From TrEMBL:
Cell cycle recorded as keyword: no
UniProt-listed PROSITE patterns: AA_TRNA_LIGASE_II
Localization per record: Cytoplasm
Protein's name in the database: Glycine--tRNA ligase
Class of the enzyme per the UniProt entry, highest EC level: ligase
Signal peptide: none
Annotated substrate binding sites: 100, 217, 264-268, 371-375
Domain of life where this protein originates: Bacteria
UniProt-listed Enzyme Commission number(s): 6.1.1.14
One of the record's GO molecular function terms: glycine-tRNA ligase activity
Length: 513
């Protein structure tokens, strides 16, 4: 099946099984805003718990906060967001569609790369085992031609983005003869800057002073609380502050479902270190964050680092963790070495001294910061994409199964009475009443057992138990495993010990030690 079709199926599966709904659905939705349903919220909460505990529980030098979404407007001046949190936009006059100029150019770079890959695939087929890819790349005239075009464009693009130089961006679009995918024309407007922050007014007057912003990232809430936390928590460098919360961006190109939303959630951690040690900490955090992702068991091949070639002027290292989505490798998390830029800016704009006094060396300094920043929703999407499977069964039927990591699954155990009478429902309820304090259980008595299994497979429930007439005599149930569909007769008394450990967030956290 084409990857595009797989993605469409995942989107409709999310809606059909109560994971993600378009916001304001009965009013035909609101672009790039989504609601999480009864199963989605459980999965999302589990992702957040996994992240939070991996930061705050596993590190005795990391604490959490929960800062407000509304903040003093000067914060966004200090952080640079008022002046520079912009995307370069261009409109096509025929389709009346708006695009990000940088995305159009990056897609064009991608097209040259695709052409090279195609030449290589063709040659590999032709030469078979004797194919030497490195040599082919170095010598094949067509590959060299595409490579040169790609590199020239990339260099021009990187230079135009410094600033950025809007005329230069437009000139690239003209020179490369980039057409609008909808109208097919090159009838472009000039490139303009567009600020991504939503603003609103606070209080009853509408003068300029009352204009405030919905935060476009949670990080600034951490920086402005640096002093509060360091002092009240008696934190010693190095230490970190973690936060999970909503962020808002007026994204122009809002597409790919929950990949790019206008209201989304971030999990960010700022780790404050002594200047000069930041590179070392940057590497440590890169390694730890990759381990966090890979502990989910999706396979190392599905992840890669993408080191930034062009750094923000205040950063001295930056990388993205990318995950292989059905639409290619995409950023899920960013790790940035932000130097002392943010704290220094807040020092300047607030007039307050934000320094750390090291009692051992008697030195005072502004700490450097390593940031790890991951989107909850993008993480959710990557998990859904990887877990969704359509399996051909031996009897010719197809089952749709979400092979979610057990610790993240919305429901851990479904308890199914074989029939709705003769004391079996009561026995099933009794099992749930004993286990519900340990993990999330669901009762289901409707339809055949087979149909009930399918419903649980579709929401990723790792375990089902069936209560039958023998259960009333021997206190045993049939335990069915989601992935293998194998069944086993087990005692009700053993259920908790068989399941609890495997479905707990602790089972994931232990892999990080
Ligand atoms: P992109 O280049 O994809 O716009 P970004 O580099 O602007 O992302 P950051 O500012 O580094 O993203 O934000 C950190 C994380 O927050 C991203 O890795 C992503 O997971 C998440 N994120 C950012 N913007 C969005 C969005 N509009 N919708 C959903 N998640 C987002």
């Amino acid at each position: 099946m084409a990857q595009e079709d797989v993605f469409k199926k995942i989107v409709s599966h999310c809606k059909e099984y109560g994971f993600v709904f378009p916001s304001s659905d009965i009013y035909d939705g609101l672009a790039a805003v989504y609601d999480y349903g009864q199963n989605g919220v459980e999965l999302k909460n589990n992702i957040k718990e996994y992240w939070w505990k991996s930061m705050v529980l596993l590190h005795d030098n990391i604490v959490g906060i929960d800062s407000a979404i509304f903040m003093h407007p000067t914060i966004w001046k200090a952080s640079g967001h008022v002046d520079a949190f912009n995307d370069p936009l261009i409109d096509n006059r025929d389709s009346k569609k708006r695009y990000r100029a940088d995305v159009l150019i990056e897609d064009q770079i991608g097209k040259y790369e695709e052409k090279i890959e195609k030449e290589i695939a063709k040659a590999r087929k032709r030469f078979g085992d004797s194919f030497d890819e490195a040599k082919f790349r170095e010598t094949n005239p067509r590959v060299l031609e595409h490579q040169k075009k790609r590199d020239d464009l990339h260099a021009r693009y990187t230079e135009a983005m410094q600033g950025p130089n809007l005329e230069a961006l437009k000139q690239i679009i003209i020179d490369e003869e980039i057409v609008d995918p909808i109208s097919g024309t090159k009838n472009w407007t000039d490139v303009r800057q567009f600020n991504l922050m939503f603003s609103t007014e606070m209080g009853s007057t509408s003068d300029a002073a009352s204009k405030i912003y919905l935060r476009p990232e949670t990080a600034q809430g951490i920086f402005v609380n640096y002093l509060n936390v360091q002092k009240t928590g008696r934190m010693k460098i190095p230490f970190g502050i973690a936060q999970i919360g909503k962020a808002f961006r007026n994204e122009i190109v809002a597409r790919q479902f929950i990949f790019r939303m206008r209201e989304f959630e971030q999990m960010e951690m700022q780790f404050f270190v002594k200047p000069g040690t930041e590179k070392e900490w940057f590497s440590k955090w890169k390694e730890f964050r990759m381990k966090w992702h890979q502990a989910l068991g999706f396979g190392a091949d599905n992840y890669r680092f993408h080191d930034h070639e062009k750094l923000a002027f205040y950063a001295n290292a930056a990388t993205d963790i990318e995950f292989k989505m059905p639409f290619g490798f995409k950023e899920v998390e960013g790790i940035h070495s932000r130097t002392d830029y943010d704290l220094k800016q807040h020092e300047k704009f607030s007039g307050r001294s934000i320094k750390y006094f090291d009692p051992q060396t008697n030195e005072s300094y502004t700490p450097y910061d390593i940031e790890t920043s991951i989107g909850v929703d993008r993480m959710f999407l990557s998990i859904m994409c990887h877990s969704y499977e359509e399996e051909k069964l031996e009897n010719g039927e197809t089952r749709v199964v979400l092979k979610l990591p057990a610790a993240l699954a919305p429901v851990k155990l479904a308890v199914l009475p074989l029939v709705k009478k003769d004391g079996l429902p009561e026995k099933a309820r009794e099992i749930i009443n004993n286990l519900k304090f340990h993990f999330n259980c669901q009762y289901d008595e409707k339809d055949t057992i087979g149909k009930r299994y399918r419903r649980q497979d579709a929401i990723g429930t790792p375990y089902c138990v069936t209560v039958d007439y023998d259960t009333l005599k021997d206190n045993c149930v049939t335990l069915r495993f989601r992935d293998t569909m194998e069944q086993e007769r087990v005692s009700i008394d053993d259920l908790n010990s068989i399941i609890e450990d495997k479905v707990s967030i602790a089972s994931l956290l232990k892999k990080l030690q």
